[in-house]
Description:
Elements (H helix, E strand, L loop, with lengths): L2 H28 L4 H11 L13 H4 L6 E8 L12 E10 L3 E6 L5 E2 L10 E2 L3 H4 L2 H12 L5 E5 L1 H10 L11 E4 L10 E4 L6 E4 L6 E3 L4 H9 L7 H19 L9 H8 L2 E3 L3 H11 L6 E3 L5 E5 L2 E5 L2 H14 L22 H7 L8
Parallel strand pairs: 1-6, 3-12
Antiparallel strand pairs: 1-2, 2-3, 4-5, 6-11, 7-8, 8-9, 9-10, 13-14
Family: Belongs to the LytR/CpsA/Psr (LCP) family.
Pfam family, one: LytR_cpsA_psr
Keywords: Membrane, Transmembrane, Transmembrane helix
Amino acid sequence: MNNRMARHHQHRRGRWIALGVLIIVLVGIFYGLNTIYQSVSTSLSASYTKVNEKGGRKTDAIIRKGKPISILLMGTDTGALDRTDKGRTDTMMLITVSKSKGIHLVSIPRDTMIAIPGLESTFPQKINAVYTFTNVSDTMSTISKYLNVPVDYFALVNMGGLEKLVNQIGGIQVKSPLTFTFSTATSHDYGKKLYKFYKGQTKFKYAKDGKHFKTYSKMNGQAALAFTRMRYEDPRGDYGRTERQRLVIAQLVKQAKNPTLLLNKKFMRSISENLRTNLTTKDMLSLATGYYNPKKKVKAISVNETSLWYQGISFQVMPRLEQQHVTNQLRQSLSLKKAVTGPVLAGNATKFTIPDAVKQVLYANDSSSN
């Protein structure tokens, strides 16, 4: 895939994933200026989680003063939050919101190679494992250090939230871009709870026992998760899975235009069980009334990384020039002065050894490293 195509896919992917997560996180906000908001505010408040700010900005004053803010959106690959197996944050997106500059977002590829600060001995790790090894606060801190931008807020949504959202709107119809088989029980093409999707068709087959299939024309939540989770059979790998995620999100956005489908106490209470955020209900209302401007378009900040196999594992490596480029755009969107990007691979470089093959990617076309 050439750079232009990769950039186009990144823009398109970023917009749809952001909209999908924001539907779940902020659905009560943009319709929240009436009595419906009051009826769901208690449920939204149940999702509030306080985090340690670890030297970051004082978040209680940022929105009150109308300053640009940043929100780290994370989607975990588990079905329930706060369980022993926390899962990984397979969707990571940093969003900046400014009254004057609108919304900027950057999707951080899940396979991005890093050394986790404080856990450099485990190098190499993928960025989606930071949450698994640590917690929300440390994940925010790692992203902040890596890109040298403040991370003010977070929203953590798990797969259970997506499943409930699809079920709430009565299911969706999505035309599959390829033929594949996937089991939600084994995460492969065999086992119970087996799905068969067909290229160019919205119809699919499902067998709870893995043998006796029935045909369906509309996906419920479980089917949507099966459709979006498969990666190994897709010749395009994570790019293909991202496309399928986008197709699902597109249908969710289309059907969620009717707020009465979503804004009710029962559903919001259900969603709150699958959502954690340090945005208070008051913060959300302030964002809706003071920051939201439909005339300001969402701008995606693309990230161009290089694929690299190391120790038998596929990674994405962000070159230092690209890391600086992303930092520059994020800081500008937050009305901050220019600054040097964060540490190489996020961690303390004195505590781990960077392989030569990785260095070649990191410092490609970077004359300053010579």
